Backbone:
């Protein structure tokens, strides 16, 4: 067993499970847990089946294969790894050693957005991690709060697990583009600055944010403008130039259309500071 797996194998726990029935208020949170637990099973193959909801299986110990999808494709599994199971998609376990795992079932309207963002990707049912400790900590918290009857904490724990487990190579591209957003450039120029093709830039930004590079630049500029309006005594024209717009009238129209109030109105009533300065 490699060192990363040993970090997760410090103690044995008895098998346990909890199944939850979320009420209407819990369902309005958009993401809700339907069950969680921990279990150990031997090297016998499991019965193939399809779930009626999403599931995450955090494999702490063991190796083998996951049978997944209508074509019954076999994916190699070696702990520590996350198995992503999808509603209506056939799956089965084929361990070659004992498996020790934690699991959770979940559903909700938020799964559509998580799918669009690439976090729930049926083409990637098995994911391994260079450093599994953040994922393990997030899953441990999820297991702990699953028994505490606090739906807000449980929803937050689910999001934490998904965010940690879905991190992919290149997720920093969106952050790098945001750093450049106040410099007026074309999408082609942004891509060249980051050493990417336009397609690579678009794919990386969509994978992380679900939007386009143009939209990320726009929302970043507006967010930066809000900070300047709230925290600095700058005229609106100066704010516009700081975030990448030479035409303050255009900036004002854009800000008003996207934010729902003018820059001056945001400064007065949309921010905590409520600073007053000349327009």
Residues:
């Amino acid at each position: 067993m490699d060192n990363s797996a040993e970090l997760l194998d410090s103690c044995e726990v008895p098998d346990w499970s909890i199944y939850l029935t979320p009420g209407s208020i819990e369902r309005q949170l958009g993401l809700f847990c339907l069950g969680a637990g921990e279990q150990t099973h031997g090297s016998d193959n499991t019965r193939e089946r399809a779930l009626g909801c999403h599931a995450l299986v955090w494999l702490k110990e063991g190796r083998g294969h996951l049978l997944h999808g209508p074509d019954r494709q076999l994916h190699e599994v070696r702990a520590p790894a996350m198995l992503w199971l999808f509603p209506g998609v056939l799956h089965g376990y084929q361990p070659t050693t004992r498996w020790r795992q934690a699991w959770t079932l979940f559903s909700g309207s938020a799964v559509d957005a998580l799918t669009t963002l690439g976090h729930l990707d049926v083409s990637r049912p098995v994911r391994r991690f260079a450093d599994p400790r953040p994922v393990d900590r997030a899953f441990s918290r999820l297991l702990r709060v699953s028994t505490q009857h606090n739906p807000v904490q449980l929803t937050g724990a689910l999001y934490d697990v998904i965010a940690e487990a879905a991190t992919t190579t290149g997720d920093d591209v969106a952050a790098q583009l945001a750093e450049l957003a106040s410099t007026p450039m074309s999408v082609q120029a942004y891509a060249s600055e980051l050493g990417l093709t336009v397609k690579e830039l678009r794919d990386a930004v969509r994978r992380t944010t679900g939007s386009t590079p143009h939209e990320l630049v726009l929302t970043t500029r507006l967010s930066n403008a809000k900070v300047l309006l709230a925290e600095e005594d700058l005229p609106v024209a100066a704010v516009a130039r700081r975030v990448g717009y030479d035409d303050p009238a255009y900036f004002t129209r854009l800000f008003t259309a996207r934010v729902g109030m003018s820059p001056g109105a945001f400064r007065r009533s949309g921010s905590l500071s409520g600073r007053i300065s000349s327009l």
Observations:
- Confidence is low (pLDDT under 50) at residues 1-7.
